[in-house]
């Protein structure tokens, strides 16, 4: 679920993207000039994006995470790995 202009803790007016409710579709894309890659997120049930979706305009994302280089991807991956550990510990 995507909550725009939400409050997170004491921080107001943030966009919160909530995973785990089967309400988001995620796609990946590379800019045509290869200047960056992106993770595209849209609030529709998973796997309801047509397989022949050709570009980000057709996907119409609501949230885009831009990765300018491998270092950006590695930072995101490290964060995801940390979250995996936290969730694993929290669910024991």
In short:
By secondary structure, the protein is α+β, with helices and mostly antiparallel strands. The protein is built from 2 helices and 5 strands.
Give a description of the structure.
The protein has 92 residues and is of the alpha+beta class. It has one domain (2-90). Helix content is 27%, strand content 34%. It has two helices and five strands, in the order ββββαβα. It has helices at residues 56-59, 70-90, and strands at 2-8, 11-17, 25-30, 37-42, 63-67. A three-stranded antiparallel beta sheet has the order 3-4-5. The mean pLDDT is 86.
Q: Provide a count of the helices.
A: 2
| Overall morphology | globular
Residue stretches low in confidence (pLDDT < 50, at least 5 long) are none
Query: What number of domains?
Result: 1
- Output the strand order for the largest sheet: 3-4-5
Helical residues, percent: 25-40%
Distance between the termini: 25 Å
Q: What is the beta-strand fraction?
A: 25-35%
Number of strands: 5
Task: Describe the largest sheet.
Answer: 3 strands, antiparallel
Rg over C-alpha atoms, rounded to the nearest angstrom: 15 Å
């Amino acid at each position: 679920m995507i909550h725009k202009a939400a409050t997170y803790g004491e921080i107001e007016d943030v966009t919160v993207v909530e995973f785990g409710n089967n309400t988001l579709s995620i796609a990946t894309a590379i800019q045509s000039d290869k200047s960056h890659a992106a993770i595209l997120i849209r609030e529709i049930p998973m796997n309801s994006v047509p397989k022949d979706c050709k570009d980000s305009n057709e996907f119409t994302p609501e949230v885009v995470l831009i990765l300018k280089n491998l270092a950006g991807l590695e930072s995101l991956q490290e964060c995801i790995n940390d979250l995996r550990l936290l969730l694993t510990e929290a669910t024991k």
